[in-house]
Structure formats: C-alpha cells, structure tokens
C-alpha cells in the first residue's frame, strides 16, 4: 500500500472509531507506531482535524466527515457478493436494509462501474443450504441486533429441544452468531445466571424490553465460542466416504476440526469431532453405502442398530396387509 492510500485509509479508520490508539492503527496497517505518528502529523498539516487525547488515543473532531468514497471495480463487486451471501442467511428485516444500502451504493457509482455490477449480478448466483423453519420464524435479526447494541433486555419463551423443556426467561443479549445453518442469540440468562446459547428458531415468543442492562464490557464473543467448543463433550470420529459425495459432505458437515485424507482405494477418510452419535448415525444413513464408520465403536453400533430397525420395519408384513 502506498502512502497516499494509507493516509486515506487512516482517515476512514479514524472516522469509524470514536477513539483509537496509535498501536491499533499500526496493527491495522502493519506499520510501526513511529510511522503512525508521522502520518498523523502529515494529516494534521494537511488540515485534517485530528485530536489526540493523552492515555486514550486519537479521534477526528466531531462534525468532520470525509466526502463520499468512490468504490473501485473490485470493491463494488465484493460488496455485491457479500450482499448475495447475506440474502441467503438473513431474515426479511435485514434483507430490506441490505437492498436499500446496495441501491444507494449503485446510485453513486460511475456509469461504467454500475454497468459492470449489473452484468455481474446477472451472471452470479449464491445458493446455500436452506435454513430450517419458515421465514416468519426468523423475523428477529434486526430487533435483536438493535437490542445487543443498545443493551436492552429480551423476554422470551424458549424450547430446549430434545429435553422438551419450555421456559420463560429474561436475557441480556450479547451477540448474534450464525453457525450450523442457524442463527443463535448469545445472551446472559437471568434465570440461570450464566451466558447461554439460544437458537432463534426455538424462541417461540420474544419481546425486546425497555429495561436496559449494564456490565459485560469485557465479554468476547470469539472467546465464548472457543470456550464452548473446548468444553463440549466431543467424540473423535473417523468416516470413509466415496469420493463422489465429498462435495455434499463438505457442505453439510459442520465441525470445528475436520481433516480429509485420500485413501488408496479412492475413498476419502474424514476425521472430525462430533457431539451426538445418534444425530451422526441418522445423517450418515442418508449416504447409504457411500459412507462407512471407522471409529468410534459406539457410532458403528448406532449405525447397526438403526439399520436393523429399518430392516425390521420393512419386513413387517402387517404394514402391507393393513395398507
């Protein structure tokens, strides 16, 4: 990155933060702190109103704004593709805001950039696995996103799934995460007095309250998720798949640690960590003879049990006689 681009980027970085330290600026641009000081001085000499607060960092004077940014061809294309992905996993509240934002971006693009983006939009489609539940069940993202930022409590009725337990709770929303083809609300549960993971499709009823909460300033969503994975009871699993189904496997199998090894017979050995052998057996049955469990023994037994149960069901003559 040349210095002109870096100085422009530094203004945008300052504009996007209330206060930011020289160390964070240096890390962002991968330069030394001394270079940051020189660049900030150069911007000040050029008339950019930068304020330095001892022990706090740097900020732009309130009211100062950079003129509208002109996107390069690659930047405009990247925004369009990001929008295509978001369309697939967002609810209607976010889709509407996304479409409005992209429309505004298109409006300020030069004609040649806009034509390029129009051609791109006609020739690219993103198709992701469908989320479970109806679209009406997912009209939650925008209000919950606002509740996270504004620190507003949420009252909800939650279905715990396999345990069959339905409880009413008041939670303090800390973040939203998309994984396993589902959106999850990470929140401090006042009922359990602990941080919990709530699947949005299991929140039967919910309401953002006027009541605000405080604290959790040191909460890290990234660290919480890492700790949850580390603490979960996972089982090392080895499965041999036919090469022809690997594209589907990569799409459907969600695992934090997944490795593939090509075998001499052409199959692919997949090693991963799973937390539920019953679910894994049910999923693997859909692959028929294209999947073989190598380990653990309990998963092999689960596969055998399910196969025997299926065999017994279809051998039952009473099913056919009563039809």
Automatic annotation (TrEMBL):
Transmembrane segments: none
Pfam family, one: WCX
Keywords from the UniProt entry: Transcription, Transcription regulation
One MF term in the entry's GO annotations: DNA-binding transcription factor activity
PANTHER family found in the cross-reference section: PROTEIN PAFC, PTHR34580
Protein name: YafY family transcriptional regulator
Annotated Gene3D superfamilies: Winged helix-like DNA-binding domain superfamily/Winged helix DNA-binding domain
PROSITE patterns to which the protein is assigned, alphabetical: HTH_DEOR_2 (PS51000), WYL (PS52050)
Keyword NADP among record annotations: no
Record carries keyword RNA-binding: no
Domain named HTH deoR-type: residues: 3-58
């Amino acid at each position: 990155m040349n210095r002109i681009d870096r100085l422009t980027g530094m203004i945008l970085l300052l504009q996007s933060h209330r206060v930011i330290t020289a160390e964070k600026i240096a890390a962002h641009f991968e330069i030394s702190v001394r270079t940051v000081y020189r660049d900030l001085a150069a911007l000040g000499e050029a008339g950019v109103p930068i304020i330095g607060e001892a022990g706090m960092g740097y900020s732009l004077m309130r009211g100062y704004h950079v003129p509208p940014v002109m996107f390069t061809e690659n930047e405009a294309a990247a925004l369009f593709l990001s929008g295509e992905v978001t369309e697939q996993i967002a609810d209607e509240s976010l889709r509407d805001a996304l479409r409005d934002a992209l429309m505004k971006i298109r409006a300020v693009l030069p004609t040649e950039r806009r034509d390029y983006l129009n051609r791109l939009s006609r020739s690219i489609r993103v198709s992701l696995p469908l989320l479970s539940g109806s679209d009406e069940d997912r009209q939650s993202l925008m209000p919950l996103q606002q509740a996270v930022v504004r620190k507003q409590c949420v009252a909800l009725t939650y279905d715990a799934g396999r345990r069959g337990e339905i409880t009413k709770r008041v939670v303090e929303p800390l973040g939203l995460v998309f994984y396993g083809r589902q959106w999850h609300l990470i929140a401090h549960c006042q009922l359990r007095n602990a941080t919990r993971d709530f699947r949005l499709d299991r929140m039967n009823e919910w309401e953002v309250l006027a009541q605000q909460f405080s604290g959790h300033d040191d909460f890290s969503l990234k660290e919480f998720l890492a700790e949850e994975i580390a603490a979960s009871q996972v089982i090392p699993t080895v499965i041999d798949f036919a090469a022809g189904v690997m594209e589907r496997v990569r799409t459907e199998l969600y695992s934090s640690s997944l490795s593939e090894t090509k075998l001499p017979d052409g199959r692919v050995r997949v090693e991963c960590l799973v937390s539920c052998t019953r679910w894994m057996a049910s999923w693997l049955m859909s692959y028929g003879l294209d999947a073989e469990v190598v380990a653990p023994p309990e998963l092999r037994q689960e596969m055998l049990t399910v196969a025997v149960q299926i065999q017994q069901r279809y051998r039952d003559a009473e099913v056919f006689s009563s039809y």
